[in-house]
Design a protein that fits this description.
This protein has eight helices and ten strands. By secondary structure, the chain is an alpha/beta fold. Bound molecules: S-adenosylmethionine (SAM).
Length: 246
């Protein structure tokens, strides 16, 4: 996969992508990540990239020319690939696991990081997706792009050592992940559940599934609406709602 990031602050990406799993994925050529500082396409001697809004109002907007010209460069370098061009925007659709999976199927992603008050509206004609990291406003799109890239790259084949770990992650299965324990079996009076230590894989699977259901019911009931609950799952949840009926 190729990932291009259009940003005024390429230095922000150096450290996060130079460590751990993303670095390994880059070293193994599973993903190639490049930043493109679109200030080089700024206007005039001072490489201006922003301007005041028509009609007045607070703040400065990113001008269209630098972003259009940066996209021309990216398209010229890779004319045939079908690209997902993703605009970082608090007014976009919320980023989630489903979108990360969708992005992970693409050969070429381009992230456009905004700054200031926002974008000249014509920039939106270039993009395939307008995506928000969440219901809050960041100072720029860089941190949002980093999060989206990290969540996407870890889904690429060969990036995680254990393929199953991504499948069982919270949100991947449609439920939140069950609790985990490691040694020691007893720590400061807190004991690892007996079922995890008895080696019965069927019972362990059942316990983990029910703990996932319980955690999702406790923390994110909204997720259960989309999860294909079996009759047994429904009975288990019913007991959580009304324990007296046990
Ligand atoms: N005036 C804009 C608005 O109300 O929608 C906010 C602009 S914000 C200060 C500057 C830039 O940061 C945005 O253009 C976008 O690229 C990025 N940004 C801010 N919050 C974001 C979020 N929640 N998700 C993704 N990008 C965000």
């Amino acid at each position: 996969m190729k990932i291009d990031i259009l940003t005024l602050f390429p230095e922000m990406f150096t450290s996060p992508f130079n460590a751990s799993i993303i670095k390994r994925a880059m070293d193994e050529n599973i993903v190639e990540i490049s930043t493109l500082d679109f200030r080089q396409y700024g206007i005039g001697k001072h490489k201006i990239v922003d301007d005041t809004p028509y009609g007045g109002g607070a703040g400065m907007l990113l001008k269209p020319e630098p972003i259009f010209e940066a996209m021309d460069e990216i398209n010229a370098a890779d004319p045939t690939a079908e690209k997902r061009i993703i605009l970082m925007d608090p007014a976009g659709k919320p980023f989630n696991h489903e979108l990360a999976e969708d992005f992970s199927k693409s050969d070429h992603l381009v992230f456009i990081c905004g700054h200031y008050e926002g974008y000249d509206e014509r920039i939106r004609t270039l993009v395939t997706d307008e995506v928000s990291l969440g219901d809050y406003v960041l100072t720029g799109g860089e941190l949002a792009a980093m999060v989206m890239i990290d969540a996407t790259v870890r889904l690429l084949p060969g990036v995680l050592g254990n393929v199953d770990s991504a499948k069982e992650d919270s949100h991947a299965s449609g439920l939140l992940e069950y609790p985990h324990y490691t040694r020691p079996a007893m720590y400061r009076g807190m004991e690892v559940p007996e079922v995890l230590r008895n080696g019965n894989h069927q019972l362990i699977e059942k316990w983990r599934h029910q703990e996932s259901l319980k955690r999702t019911y406790d923390r994110r009931k909204d997720m259960l609406k989309n999860y294909p609950l079996t009759e047994e799952d429904k009975q288990f949840i019913q007991q959580l709602i009304n324990p007296i009926q046990k």
